[in-house]
Amino acid sequence: KEGFGKSKLKFTAIKPVDAAVDAVTVPDGFTWQPVIRWGDPLFSDSPDFDINKQTAAAQARQFGYNNDYTDILEIPNTKGRRAVLFTNHEYTNENIMVPAGYDAKETRAIGRAAHGLAVVELERKNTTKPWSYVKGAPLNRRFLDDTTYELTGPVAGSALVKTVADPSGKAIKGTFGNCSGGTTPWGTILSGEENFNGYFVAGGTSASDKRYGLTANATSRKWELDDPRFDTRNAGYENEANRFGWIVEVDPFDPTSTPKKHSAMGRFKHEGANVIVAKSGHVVAYMGDDERFDYLYKFVSKGKYIEGDRKNNMGLLSEGNLFVAQFTGNSPAAEITGTGAVPSDGAFDGIGEWLPLVVDGKSAIAGMSVEEVLVHTRIAADKAANAKGGPTKMDRCEDVQPSLHTGKVYVVCTNNSDRGKAGKEGATEVNPRTQNRDGHIVEITETGDQTSTSFGWNLLMVCGDPAQGDVTYFSGYPVDKVSPISCPDNVAFDSVGNLWISTDGAPSGIGYNDGLFKVTLDGAERGKVEQFLAVPRDAETCGPIIHDEERTVFVAVQHPGEEGTFEAPHSYFPDYVGAGAKPAAGQVRAPRPAVIQVFRG
Ligand code: FEO
Ligand code: CA
Ligand code: CA
Ligand code: CA
Protein backbone atom coordinates (compact mmCIF):
# COMPACT_ATOMS: atom_id res chain seq x y z
CA LYS A 1 0.00 0.00 0.00
CA GLU A 2 1.16 3.51 -0.78
CA GLY A 3 0.93 6.59 1.40
CA PHE A 4 2.57 5.68 4.69
CA GLY A 5 1.60 7.61 7.80
CA LYS A 6 3.85 10.26 9.26
CA SER A 7 6.29 9.13 11.93
CA LYS A 8 6.26 10.66 15.43
CA LEU A 9 10.05 10.64 15.29
CA LYS A 10 10.71 14.05 13.79
CA PHE A 11 14.23 15.42 13.46
CA THR A 12 16.36 17.79 11.44
CA ALA A 13 19.06 15.90 9.58
CA ILE A 14 22.57 16.30 10.99
CA LYS A 15 25.41 17.42 8.76
CA PRO A 16 27.92 14.72 7.81
CA VAL A 17 30.68 14.36 10.41
CA ASP A 18 34.36 14.36 9.44
CA ALA A 19 35.99 10.94 9.84
CA ALA A 20 38.53 12.21 12.40
CA VAL A 21 35.81 13.15 14.92
CA ASP A 22 35.57 10.91 18.00
CA ALA A 23 31.99 11.64 19.05
CA VAL A 24 28.44 10.37 18.76
CA THR A 25 26.54 13.07 16.85
CA VAL A 26 22.74 13.22 17.19
CA PRO A 27 20.10 15.71 15.95
CA ASP A 28 19.22 18.90 17.87
CA GLY A 29 16.89 18.06 20.74
CA PHE A 30 18.18 14.48 21.13
CA THR A 31 20.63 12.99 23.58
CA TRP A 32 22.32 9.59 23.85
CA GLN A 33 23.63 7.18 26.48
CA PRO A 34 24.84 3.57 26.55
CA VAL A 35 22.45 0.72 27.32
CA ILE A 36 25.33 -1.71 27.87
CA ARG A 37 29.07 -1.71 27.13
CA TRP A 38 31.80 -4.29 26.54
CA GLY A 39 32.79 -5.72 29.93
CA ASP A 40 29.64 -4.77 31.84
CA PRO A 41 28.90 -7.52 34.40
CA LEU A 42 25.86 -9.65 33.49
CA PHE A 43 25.41 -12.05 36.39
CA SER A 44 25.26 -11.62 40.16
CA ASP A 45 28.70 -13.26 40.45
CA SER A 46 30.28 -11.31 37.55
CA PRO A 47 33.35 -9.23 38.40
CA ASP A 48 33.26 -5.54 37.55
CA PHE A 49 35.14 -4.64 34.38
CA ASP A 50 38.79 -3.77 35.02
CA ILE A 51 40.66 -3.17 31.81
CA ASN A 52 44.00 -3.77 33.49
CA LYS A 53 42.98 -7.08 35.10
CA GLN A 54 41.19 -8.88 32.31
CA THR A 55 40.83 -12.65 32.35
CA ALA A 56 38.91 -15.08 30.15
CA ALA A 57 36.94 -16.24 33.18
CA ALA A 58 35.81 -12.67 33.91
CA GLN A 59 34.99 -11.98 30.25
CA ALA A 60 32.80 -15.07 30.08
CA ARG A 61 30.58 -13.50 32.79
CA GLN A 62 30.59 -10.04 31.18
CA PHE A 63 29.12 -8.43 28.05
CA GLY A 64 31.24 -9.35 25.01
CA TYR A 65 32.78 -7.30 22.20
CA ASN A 66 31.66 -5.78 18.86
CA ASN A 67 27.89 -6.00 18.60
CA ASP A 68 26.17 -6.27 15.25
CA TYR A 69 22.54 -7.48 15.03
CA THR A 70 20.56 -6.07 17.94
CA ASP A 71 16.91 -6.22 18.91
CA ILE A 72 14.85 -5.34 21.97
CA LEU A 73 11.68 -7.34 22.63
CA GLU A 74 9.22 -6.34 25.31
CA ILE A 75 8.62 -8.93 28.04
CA PRO A 76 4.84 -9.54 28.08
CA ASN A 77 2.74 -8.16 30.94
CA THR A 78 5.35 -5.69 32.20
CA LYS A 79 3.55 -2.48 31.08
CA GLY A 80 6.47 -1.68 28.81
CA ARG A 81 8.87 -1.50 31.75
CA ARG A 82 10.83 -4.67 31.09
CA ALA A 83 12.41 -5.96 27.86
CA VAL A 84 15.00 -8.40 26.63
CA LEU A 85 17.97 -7.25 24.56
CA PHE A 86 19.61 -9.66 22.14
CA THR A 87 22.89 -8.88 20.49
CA ASN A 88 25.88 -10.75 19.13
CA HIS A 89 29.62 -10.36 19.57
CA GLU A 90 30.90 -10.63 16.02
CA TYR A 91 34.64 -10.39 16.50
CA THR A 92 37.36 -8.90 18.68
CA ASN A 93 40.02 -6.20 18.31
CA GLU A 94 42.75 -7.50 20.61
CA ASN A 95 45.04 -4.60 19.58
CA ILE A 96 42.82 -2.16 21.48
CA MET A 97 41.39 -4.54 24.12
CA VAL A 98 44.51 -5.41 26.09
CA PRO A 99 47.86 -3.65 26.65
CA ALA A 100 50.81 -4.70 24.48
CA GLY A 101 52.66 -7.61 26.07
CA TYR A 102 49.60 -9.09 27.79
CA ASP A 103 49.97 -12.86 28.14
CA ALA A 104 49.37 -14.25 24.62
CA LYS A 105 47.47 -17.40 25.63
CA GLU A 106 45.25 -15.50 28.04
CA THR A 107 44.66 -12.82 25.38
CA ARG A 108 43.47 -15.50 22.96
CA ALA A 109 41.15 -16.91 25.62
CA ILE A 110 39.79 -13.43 26.43
CA GLY A 111 39.12 -12.94 22.74
CA ARG A 112 37.27 -16.27 22.51
CA ALA A 113 35.17 -15.43 25.58
CA ALA A 114 34.31 -12.02 24.07
CA HIS A 115 32.79 -13.75 20.99
CA GLY A 116 29.34 -15.31 20.70
CA LEU A 117 25.93 -13.97 21.66
CA ALA A 118 24.26 -12.28 24.61
CA VAL A 119 20.75 -11.94 26.01
CA VAL A 120 20.28 -9.25 28.67
CA GLU A 121 17.18 -7.98 30.47
CA LEU A 122 16.44 -4.24 30.42
CA GLU A 123 14.24 -2.13 32.68
CA ARG A 124 12.94 1.43 32.84
CA LYS A 125 10.78 3.40 35.29
CA ASN A 126 8.15 4.13 32.65
CA THR A 127 7.83 4.25 28.87
CA THR A 128 9.18 7.82 28.65
CA LYS A 129 12.48 6.94 30.38
CA PRO A 130 15.65 5.42 28.90
CA TRP A 131 16.50 1.75 29.47
CA SER A 132 19.08 0.31 31.91
CA TYR A 133 20.31 -3.27 31.84
CA VAL A 134 19.64 -5.49 34.86
CA LYS A 135 22.64 -7.31 36.32
CA GLY A 136 21.70 -10.81 37.49
CA ALA A 137 18.28 -10.87 35.75
CA PRO A 138 16.81 -14.34 35.10
CA LEU A 139 16.96 -14.18 31.28
CA ASN A 140 20.58 -12.95 31.10
CA ARG A 141 22.74 -15.36 29.13
CA ARG A 142 26.08 -15.52 27.36
CA PHE A 143 26.61 -17.97 24.49
CA LEU A 144 30.29 -19.01 24.47
CA ASP A 145 32.60 -21.29 22.49
CA ASP A 146 31.42 -24.29 24.54
CA THR A 147 27.68 -23.59 24.18
CA THR A 148 26.00 -26.47 22.31
CA TYR A 149 23.90 -25.72 19.20
CA GLU A 150 21.58 -28.33 17.71
CA LEU A 151 22.07 -28.74 13.96
CA THR A 152 18.62 -29.14 12.36
CA GLY A 153 17.47 -30.15 8.89
CA PRO A 154 18.84 -32.42 6.17
CA VAL A 155 22.53 -32.06 7.13
CA ALA A 156 22.00 -33.06 10.79
CA GLY A 157 23.80 -36.36 11.35
CA SER A 158 25.37 -36.35 7.88
CA ALA A 159 28.92 -37.60 7.32
CA LEU A 160 29.82 -34.09 6.16
CA VAL A 161 29.56 -32.63 9.67
CA LYS A 162 30.73 -35.45 11.98
CA THR A 163 33.90 -34.97 14.02
CA VAL A 164 35.75 -37.02 16.60
CA ALA A 165 34.24 -34.78 19.29
CA ASP A 166 30.71 -35.05 17.83
CA PRO A 167 30.12 -38.43 16.16
CA SER A 168 26.38 -37.58 16.07
CA GLY A 169 26.94 -34.71 13.64
CA LYS A 170 24.18 -32.81 15.41
CA ALA A 171 25.77 -31.01 18.37
CA ILE A 172 28.02 -28.07 17.49
CA LYS A 173 30.02 -26.06 20.02
CA GLY A 174 29.98 -22.29 19.58
CA THR A 175 29.17 -19.68 16.97
CA PHE A 176 31.71 -17.22 15.51
CA GLY A 177 31.68 -14.24 13.19
CA ASN A 178 28.00 -13.55 13.82
CA CYS A 179 27.03 -10.54 11.81
CA SER A 180 23.53 -9.32 11.12
CA GLY A 181 20.34 -11.22 11.81
CA GLY A 182 16.61 -10.88 12.10
CA THR A 183 13.73 -11.26 14.50
CA THR A 184 11.09 -13.83 13.57
CA PRO A 185 7.31 -13.28 13.76
CA TRP A 186 7.33 -15.86 16.59
CA GLY A 187 9.74 -13.87 18.76
CA THR A 188 13.03 -15.69 18.24
CA ILE A 189 16.27 -14.20 16.95
CA LEU A 190 18.22 -15.27 13.87
CA SER A 191 21.96 -14.62 13.62
CA GLY A 192 24.17 -15.10 10.57
CA GLU A 193 27.54 -16.86 10.85
CA GLU A 194 29.48 -14.71 8.42
CA ASN A 195 33.29 -14.64 8.24
CA PHE A 196 33.68 -18.09 9.84
CA ASN A 197 36.53 -19.00 7.48
CA GLY A 198 38.82 -16.61 9.37
CA TYR A 199 38.67 -18.85 12.45
CA PHE A 200 40.02 -22.01 10.80
CA VAL A 201 43.25 -23.28 9.34
CA ALA A 202 42.42 -25.75 6.56
CA GLY A 203 44.03 -27.72 3.74
CA GLY A 204 43.05 -24.86 1.48
CA THR A 205 43.21 -26.90 -1.73
CA SER A 206 39.75 -28.53 -2.02
CA ALA A 207 37.12 -26.89 -4.22
CA SER A 208 35.07 -26.09 -1.12
CA ASP A 209 38.01 -24.64 0.86
CA LYS A 210 38.81 -22.39 -2.10
CA ARG A 211 35.22 -21.30 -2.66
CA TYR A 212 34.79 -20.43 1.05
CA GLY A 213 38.15 -18.74 1.52
CA LEU A 214 39.58 -21.40 3.86
CA THR A 215 43.39 -21.45 3.66
CA ALA A 216 46.39 -23.16 5.24
CA ASN A 217 47.62 -19.86 6.73
CA ALA A 218 47.73 -19.31 10.49
CA THR A 219 44.60 -17.41 11.57
CA SER A 220 44.90 -13.90 12.95
CA ARG A 221 43.68 -14.99 16.42
CA LYS A 222 45.61 -18.29 16.44
CA TRP A 223 42.97 -20.26 18.34
CA GLU A 224 44.37 -23.31 16.55
CA LEU A 225 47.15 -23.22 19.14
CA ASP A 226 44.64 -23.84 21.94
CA ASP A 227 42.01 -26.18 20.44
CA PRO A 228 42.72 -28.72 17.67
CA ARG A 229 39.32 -28.24 16.08
CA PHE A 230 40.38 -24.86 14.70
CA ASP A 231 42.83 -26.63 12.35
CA THR A 232 40.83 -28.91 10.04
CA ARG A 233 44.03 -30.68 8.98
CA ASN A 234 44.00 -32.39 12.40
CA ALA A 235 42.74 -35.99 12.34
CA GLY A 236 39.09 -36.15 13.35
CA TYR A 237 38.40 -32.47 12.68
CA GLU A 238 38.33 -32.51 8.87
CA ASN A 239 34.67 -31.42 8.92
CA GLU A 240 34.87 -28.80 11.67
CA ALA A 241 34.55 -25.81 9.32
CA ASN A 242 31.41 -27.40 7.79
CA ARG A 243 29.76 -26.83 11.18
CA PHE A 244 29.93 -23.04 10.73
CA GLY A 245 28.41 -20.71 8.13
CA TRP A 246 24.81 -21.36 9.17
CA ILE A 247 21.82 -19.34 10.34
CA VAL A 248 21.46 -19.62 14.11
CA GLU A 249 18.09 -19.35 15.92
CA VAL A 250 17.89 -18.34 19.59
CA ASP A 251 14.90 -18.14 21.92
CA PRO A 252 15.72 -15.14 24.13
CA PHE A 253 12.78 -15.84 26.42
CA ASP A 254 14.05 -19.29 27.52
CA PRO A 255 17.51 -19.21 29.11
CA THR A 256 17.62 -23.02 29.21
CA SER A 257 16.79 -23.49 25.50
CA THR A 258 19.26 -25.08 23.09
CA PRO A 259 20.05 -22.67 20.24
CA LYS A 260 19.80 -24.12 16.72
CA LYS A 261 21.74 -23.99 13.47
CA HIS A 262 19.41 -24.48 10.49
CA SER A 263 21.05 -26.48 7.71
CA ALA A 264 18.02 -26.17 5.40
CA MET A 265 18.87 -22.47 4.96
CA GLY A 266 22.21 -23.28 3.34
CA ARG A 267 25.82 -22.60 4.26
CA PHE A 268 27.65 -19.51 3.10
CA LYS A 269 28.92 -16.27 4.62
CA HIS A 270 25.51 -15.49 6.03
CA GLU A 271 25.04 -11.81 6.71
CA GLY A 272 21.64 -12.43 8.30
CA ALA A 273 18.12 -13.66 7.60
CA ASN A 274 14.81 -11.83 7.65
CA VAL A 275 11.50 -13.66 7.72
CA ILE A 276 8.06 -12.71 6.43
CA VAL A 277 4.90 -14.81 6.52
CA ALA A 278 3.52 -15.24 2.99
CA LYS A 279 -0.23 -15.09 2.28
CA SER A 280 -0.19 -18.88 1.96
CA GLY A 281 1.18 -19.20 5.52
CA HIS A 282 4.61 -20.48 4.49
CA VAL A 283 7.43 -18.40 5.93
CA VAL A 284 10.03 -16.91 3.62
CA ALA A 285 13.54 -15.91 4.68
CA TYR A 286 15.74 -13.62 2.58
CA MET A 287 19.50 -14.03 2.99
CA GLY A 288 22.61 -12.40 1.57
CA ASP A 289 26.07 -13.94 1.11
CA ASP A 290 28.42 -11.08 1.95
CA GLU A 291 31.31 -11.58 -0.44
CA ARG A 292 32.20 -9.70 -3.59
CA PHE A 293 30.41 -11.37 -6.55
CA ASP A 294 28.38 -13.73 -4.37
CA TYR A 295 24.66 -14.39 -4.36
CA LEU A 296 21.28 -13.59 -2.87
CA TYR A 297 19.20 -16.49 -1.48
CA LYS A 298 15.64 -17.22 -0.39
CA PHE A 299 14.28 -20.00 1.83
CA VAL A 300 10.60 -21.05 1.76
CA SER A 301 9.39 -23.22 4.64
CA LYS A 302 7.59 -26.50 4.04
CA GLY A 303 5.34 -25.98 7.04
CA LYS A 304 2.98 -23.09 7.70
CA TYR A 305 3.01 -20.42 10.35
CA ILE A 306 0.37 -20.78 13.05
CA GLU A 307 -0.24 -17.62 15.09
CA GLY A 308 0.54 -18.28 18.76
CA ASP A 309 1.87 -21.84 18.20
CA ARG A 310 5.50 -21.29 19.13
CA LYS A 311 6.44 -24.97 19.02
CA ASN A 312 5.20 -25.29 15.43
CA ASN A 313 6.76 -22.01 14.36
CA MET A 314 10.16 -22.81 15.86
CA GLY A 315 10.34 -25.83 13.55
CA LEU A 316 9.60 -23.91 10.34
CA LEU A 317 13.20 -23.10 9.42
CA SER A 318 14.28 -26.75 9.62
CA GLU A 319 12.65 -27.89 6.37
CA GLY A 320 11.93 -26.16 3.09
CA ASN A 321 12.99 -25.05 -0.37
CA LEU A 322 16.12 -23.03 -1.11
CA PHE A 323 16.60 -20.70 -4.08
CA VAL A 324 19.26 -18.36 -5.49
CA ALA A 325 18.45 -15.10 -7.30
CA GLN A 326 18.92 -14.28 -10.98
CA PHE A 327 18.36 -10.64 -12.02
CA THR A 328 17.77 -9.54 -15.63
CA GLY A 329 17.90 -5.85 -16.62
CA ASN A 330 15.64 -4.27 -19.25
CA SER A 331 17.93 -1.52 -20.59
CA PRO A 332 20.43 -1.96 -23.44
CA ALA A 333 23.83 -3.09 -22.14
CA ALA A 334 25.44 -0.08 -23.84
CA GLU A 335 23.53 2.20 -21.47
CA ILE A 336 25.12 0.60 -18.41
CA THR A 337 28.27 2.68 -18.41
CA GLY A 338 29.72 1.54 -15.10
CA THR A 339 29.50 5.07 -13.68
CA GLY A 340 26.08 4.84 -12.03
CA ALA A 341 24.46 7.05 -14.70
CA VAL A 342 20.76 6.23 -15.13
CA PRO A 343 19.77 4.42 -18.38
CA SER A 344 17.42 6.09 -20.87
CA ASP A 345 14.27 4.43 -19.49
CA GLY A 346 14.88 6.41 -16.30
CA ALA A 347 15.45 3.43 -14.01
CA PHE A 348 17.75 0.58 -13.16
CA ASP A 349 15.13 -2.14 -13.31
CA GLY A 350 14.01 -5.47 -14.72
CA ILE A 351 12.75 -8.91 -13.81
CA GLY A 352 14.19 -11.88 -12.01
CA GLU A 353 13.86 -15.53 -11.19
CA TRP A 354 14.55 -17.62 -8.10
CA LEU A 355 16.59 -20.61 -9.31
CA PRO A 356 15.98 -23.78 -7.27
CA LEU A 357 18.74 -25.46 -5.23
CA VAL A 358 16.58 -27.71 -3.04
CA VAL A 359 12.90 -28.43 -3.79
CA ASP A 360 10.59 -30.78 -1.85
CA GLY A 361 13.52 -32.34 -0.02
CA LYS A 362 15.36 -33.16 -3.27
CA SER A 363 18.48 -31.63 -4.73
CA ALA A 364 17.88 -29.51 -7.84
CA ILE A 365 21.59 -29.64 -8.74
CA ALA A 366 22.78 -32.55 -10.87
CA GLY A 367 25.54 -34.56 -9.24
CA MET A 368 25.04 -33.13 -5.75
CA SER A 369 23.05 -34.65 -2.89
CA VAL A 370 20.81 -32.47 -0.71
CA GLU A 371 23.45 -32.62 2.03
CA GLU A 372 26.14 -31.49 -0.42
CA VAL A 373 23.97 -28.64 -1.75
CA LEU A 374 23.35 -27.39 1.77
CA VAL A 375 26.96 -27.68 3.02
CA HIS A 376 28.62 -26.47 -0.19
CA THR A 377 25.86 -24.05 -1.12
CA ARG A 378 28.12 -21.66 -3.01
CA ILE A 379 29.30 -24.48 -5.27
CA ALA A 380 25.71 -25.64 -5.82
CA ALA A 381 24.62 -22.09 -6.68
CA ASP A 382 27.49 -21.80 -9.19
CA LYS A 383 25.89 -24.77 -11.03
CA ALA A 384 22.29 -23.53 -10.92
CA ALA A 385 21.06 -22.25 -14.28
CA ASN A 386 18.07 -21.66 -16.53
CA ALA A 387 17.95 -20.68 -20.23
CA LYS A 388 19.23 -17.19 -19.34
CA GLY A 389 22.24 -18.48 -17.40
CA GLY A 390 23.15 -18.69 -13.72
CA PRO A 391 22.52 -16.64 -10.60
CA THR A 392 23.62 -13.01 -10.44
CA LYS A 393 26.94 -12.05 -8.90
CA MET A 394 26.12 -9.24 -6.47
CA ASP A 395 28.11 -6.40 -4.90
CA ARG A 396 28.19 -7.96 -1.39
CA CYS A 397 24.62 -8.48 -0.17
CA GLU A 398 24.41 -7.42 3.48
CA ASP A 399 20.95 -7.07 5.06
CA VAL A 400 18.04 -8.31 2.92
CA GLN A 401 14.81 -7.28 4.54
CA PRO A 402 11.14 -7.36 3.53
CA SER A 403 8.90 -4.43 4.44
CA LEU A 404 5.95 -5.67 6.47
CA HIS A 405 4.00 -2.68 5.06
CA THR A 406 4.41 -3.49 1.37
CA GLY A 407 6.07 -6.92 1.07
CA LYS A 408 8.80 -5.30 -1.05
CA VAL A 409 12.27 -6.62 -0.24
CA TYR A 410 15.34 -4.38 0.18
CA VAL A 411 18.69 -5.88 -0.77
CA VAL A 412 21.58 -3.85 0.59
CA CYS A 413 24.71 -4.13 -1.56
CA THR A 414 27.44 -2.50 0.48
CA ASN A 415 30.23 -2.08 -2.14
CA ASN A 416 32.47 -4.04 -4.51
CA SER A 417 35.82 -2.50 -5.27
CA ASP A 418 36.63 -5.36 -7.71
CA ARG A 419 33.73 -4.96 -10.14
CA GLY A 420 35.08 -4.25 -13.61
CA LYS A 421 38.69 -4.99 -12.68
CA ALA A 422 40.77 -7.16 -15.00
CA GLY A 423 39.32 -10.67 -15.16
CA LYS A 424 36.24 -9.71 -13.11
CA GLU A 425 32.65 -9.16 -14.20
CA GLY A 426 31.81 -5.59 -15.24
CA ALA A 427 28.74 -3.48 -14.52
CA THR A 428 25.24 -4.95 -14.98
CA GLU A 429 21.93 -3.13 -14.61
CA VAL A 430 21.44 -4.47 -11.06
CA ASN A 431 25.08 -3.80 -10.07
CA PRO A 432 25.57 -0.75 -12.29
CA ARG A 433 28.85 0.69 -11.09
CA THR A 434 32.40 -0.53 -11.68
CA GLN A 435 34.74 -0.29 -8.66
CA ASN A 436 31.59 0.23 -6.62
CA ARG A 437 32.97 2.13 -3.65
CA ASP A 438 29.71 3.38 -2.15
CA GLY A 439 27.15 0.60 -2.71
CA HIS A 440 23.48 0.58 -3.74
CA ILE A 441 20.10 -0.82 -2.71
CA VAL A 442 17.87 -3.12 -4.79
CA GLU A 443 14.09 -3.16 -4.27
CA ILE A 444 12.38 -6.46 -5.15
CA THR A 445 8.64 -6.89 -5.75
CA GLU A 446 7.69 -10.56 -5.74
CA THR A 447 5.17 -11.69 -8.40
CA GLY A 448 2.12 -12.34 -6.24
CA ASP A 449 2.78 -14.28 -3.06
CA GLN A 450 6.14 -14.00 -1.30
CA THR A 451 6.78 -17.67 -2.19
CA SER A 452 6.79 -16.84 -5.93
CA THR A 453 9.68 -17.96 -8.13
CA SER A 454 9.68 -14.73 -10.18
CA PHE A 455 9.93 -11.06 -9.31
CA GLY A 456 10.39 -7.52 -10.56
CA TRP A 457 13.14 -5.24 -9.29
CA ASN A 458 14.52 -1.73 -9.41
CA LEU A 459 17.25 0.19 -7.64
CA LEU A 460 16.12 2.43 -4.77
CA MET A 461 19.45 4.24 -4.70
CA VAL A 462 23.03 4.27 -5.91
CA CYS A 463 24.98 5.74 -3.00
CA GLY A 464 27.73 8.36 -2.76
CA ASP A 465 28.23 12.05 -2.07
CA PRO A 466 26.81 14.19 -4.89
CA ALA A 467 28.57 17.24 -3.39
CA GLN A 468 31.93 15.57 -4.09
CA GLY A 469 30.96 14.85 -7.69
CA ASP A 470 29.90 11.21 -7.26
CA VAL A 471 27.34 10.00 -9.81
CA THR A 472 24.42 8.91 -7.63
CA TYR A 473 20.74 8.02 -7.96
CA PHE A 474 18.01 8.39 -5.34
CA SER A 475 14.89 7.22 -7.22
CA GLY A 476 14.74 10.60 -8.93
CA TYR A 477 14.81 12.66 -5.72
CA PRO A 478 17.05 15.75 -6.19
CA VAL A 479 20.61 14.65 -5.42
CA ASP A 480 21.47 18.06 -3.91
CA LYS A 481 18.81 17.54 -1.21
CA VAL A 482 20.01 14.23 0.31
CA SER A 483 22.47 13.44 3.09
CA PRO A 484 25.58 11.85 1.56
CA ILE A 485 25.54 8.08 2.20
CA SER A 486 28.12 5.35 1.51
CA CYS A 487 28.38 1.60 2.18
CA PRO A 488 24.85 0.76 3.37
CA ASP A 489 24.91 -2.35 5.56
CA ASN A 490 22.04 -2.94 8.04
CA VAL A 491 18.45 -1.82 7.62
CA ALA A 492 15.32 -1.56 9.75
CA PHE A 493 11.84 -0.16 9.28
CA ASP A 494 10.01 2.26 11.54
CA SER A 495 6.37 1.71 12.50
CA VAL A 496 5.06 3.65 9.47
CA GLY A 497 7.27 1.97 6.86
CA ASN A 498 10.24 4.28 6.40
CA LEU A 499 13.54 2.51 5.75
CA TRP A 500 16.46 3.21 8.09
CA ILE A 501 19.98 2.38 6.95
CA SER A 502 23.18 2.05 8.95
CA THR A 503 26.52 2.23 7.16
CA ASP A 504 29.94 0.55 7.36
CA GLY A 505 32.80 2.02 5.37
CA ALA A 506 31.90 5.67 4.71
CA PRO A 507 35.18 7.04 6.15
CA SER A 508 37.33 5.38 3.49
CA GLY A 509 34.86 6.33 0.73
CA ILE A 510 33.36 9.77 1.25
CA GLY A 511 35.50 10.78 4.25
CA TYR A 512 32.71 10.98 6.81
CA ASN A 513 32.01 8.89 9.87
CA ASP A 514 29.50 6.09 9.45
CA GLY A 515 25.94 6.82 10.48
CA LEU A 516 22.24 6.07 10.52
CA PHE A 517 19.94 7.42 7.82
CA LYS A 518 16.18 7.57 7.30
CA VAL A 519 14.89 7.03 3.76
CA THR A 520 11.37 7.85 2.60
CA LEU A 521 10.09 5.04 0.35
CA ASP A 522 6.85 6.40 -1.06
CA GLY A 523 5.24 9.54 -2.47
CA ALA A 524 6.93 12.68 -3.79
CA GLU A 525 9.81 12.35 -1.34
CA ARG A 526 10.71 8.76 -2.28
CA GLY A 527 14.50 8.51 -2.20
CA LYS A 528 15.00 11.37 0.29
CA VAL A 529 17.89 10.44 2.61
CA GLU A 530 18.21 12.19 6.00
CA GLN A 531 21.09 11.48 8.36
CA PHE A 532 19.98 10.87 11.97
CA LEU A 533 23.27 10.17 13.71
CA ALA A 534 26.99 9.59 13.23
CA VAL A 535 29.13 7.13 15.20
CA PRO A 536 32.63 7.85 16.55
CA ARG A 537 35.96 7.50 14.80
CA ASP A 538 36.64 4.14 13.07
CA ALA A 539 33.25 2.71 14.17
CA GLU A 540 30.58 0.98 12.09
CA THR A 541 26.89 1.60 12.79
CA CYS A 542 25.02 -1.66 13.44
CA GLY A 543 21.84 -3.00 14.83
CA PRO A 544 19.48 -0.26 14.21
CA ILE A 545 16.20 -0.47 16.13
CA ILE A 546 13.68 2.28 15.46
CA HIS A 547 11.09 2.76 18.21
CA ASP A 548 9.69 5.85 16.52
CA GLU A 549 6.48 5.83 18.57
CA GLU A 550 8.69 6.34 21.66
CA ARG A 551 10.94 8.76 19.71
CA THR A 552 13.87 6.47 20.50
CA VAL A 553 16.50 4.84 18.31
CA PHE A 554 19.08 2.21 19.28
CA VAL A 555 22.30 1.39 17.49
CA ALA A 556 25.25 -0.89 18.19
CA VAL A 557 28.49 1.05 17.88
CA GLN A 558 30.86 -1.59 16.54
CA HIS A 559 34.69 -1.42 16.57
CA PRO A 560 35.11 2.22 17.71
CA GLY A 561 38.78 3.25 17.51
CA GLU A 562 39.64 0.06 15.57
CA GLU A 563 42.56 1.65 13.72
CA GLY A 564 44.24 2.83 16.94
CA THR A 565 46.29 0.97 19.53
CA PHE A 566 45.77 0.33 23.22
CA GLU A 567 48.52 2.83 24.04
CA ALA A 568 47.34 5.46 21.52
CA PRO A 569 43.55 5.12 21.28
CA HIS A 570 41.60 6.58 18.37
CA SER A 571 38.45 6.69 20.47
CA TYR A 572 37.36 7.06 24.07
CA PHE A 573 33.75 6.05 23.31
CA PRO A 574 31.50 5.84 25.26
CA ASP A 575 33.06 7.02 28.53
CA TYR A 576 35.01 9.86 26.90
CA VAL A 577 37.95 10.31 29.23
CA GLY A 578 40.52 12.00 27.02
CA ALA A 579 44.28 11.53 26.90
CA GLY A 580 45.89 12.99 30.03
CA ALA A 581 42.58 13.26 31.87
CA LYS A 582 42.18 11.38 35.15
CA PRO A 583 39.40 8.79 34.79
CA ALA A 584 36.61 9.00 37.35
CA ALA A 585 35.57 5.82 39.14
CA GLY A 586 34.19 3.37 36.59
CA GLN A 587 35.53 5.22 33.54
CA VAL A 588 37.92 3.57 31.13
CA ARG A 589 40.44 5.15 28.80
CA ALA A 590 39.83 2.76 25.92
CA PRO A 591 36.96 2.47 23.48
CA ARG A 592 34.24 0.04 24.51
CA PRO A 593 31.86 -1.23 21.84
CA ALA A 594 28.35 -0.59 23.18
CA VAL A 595 24.66 -0.56 22.40
CA ILE A 596 23.41 3.01 22.77
CA GLN A 597 19.98 4.64 22.91
CA VAL A 598 19.20 8.01 21.36
CA PHE A 599 16.12 9.80 22.66
CA ARG A 600 14.43 13.19 23.03
CA GLY A 601 15.88 15.10 25.92
FE1 FEO B 1 29.76 -8.41 9.14
FE2 FEO B 1 28.69 -8.36 6.10
O1 FEO B 1 29.20 -7.49 7.58
CA1 CA C 1 15.98 -0.10 -17.03
CA1 CA D 1 27.17 -6.21 8.03
CA1 CA E 1 29.80 -4.73 6.79
TrEMBL record:
<dbReference type="InterPro" id="IPR006311">
    <property type="entry name" value="TAT_signal"/>
</dbReference>
<dbReference type="Pfam" id="PF05787">
    <property type="entry name" value="PhoX"/>
</dbReference>
<protein>
    <recommendedName>
        <fullName>Phosphatase</fullName>
    </recommendedName>
</protein>
<dbReference type="InterPro" id="IPR008557">
    <property type="entry name" value="PhoX"/>
</dbReference>
